[in-house]
Backbone:
């Protein structure tokens, strides 16, 4: 009688531990995958600027080719927005390049200061 109760509790506690382990592994996997899929702030800006260029390209095509009568005012408006979107995309790309150059400069300065510090310690 006592042996059967012990086995019964043991089996259910084992199931509970397996359940907790599975839930923990799943939560960890979801956290790692979501962190990898998350875009940085700069990537979000770049993606948004590229989407604006594509949107305005489509709207120009739509208002020139897919209508019976072309409305020149709308076409000019979307052409202006298209050029502004291209300029914004170029600016975002240039800002990213500058940021990478600054990051490289900072790491180079850190390396130089570390080497200089080592030279001072040796003397």
Residues:
């Amino acid at each position: 009688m006592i042996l059967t109760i012990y086995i019964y509790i043991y089996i259910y506690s084992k199931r509970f531990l397996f359940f907790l382990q599975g839930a923990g592994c799943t939560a960890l996997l979801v956290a790692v995958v979501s962190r990898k899929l998350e875009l940085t702030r700069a990537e979000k800006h770049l993606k948004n600027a590229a989407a604006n260029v594509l949107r305005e390209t489509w709207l120009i095509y739509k208002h020139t080719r897919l209508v019976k009568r072309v409305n020149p005012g709308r076409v000019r408006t979307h052409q202006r927005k298209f050029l502004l979107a291209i300029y914004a995309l170029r600016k975002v790309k240039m800002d990213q390049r500058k940021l990478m150059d600054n990051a490289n400069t900072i790491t180079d300065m850190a390396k130089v200061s570390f080497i200089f510090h080592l030279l001072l310690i040796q003397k």
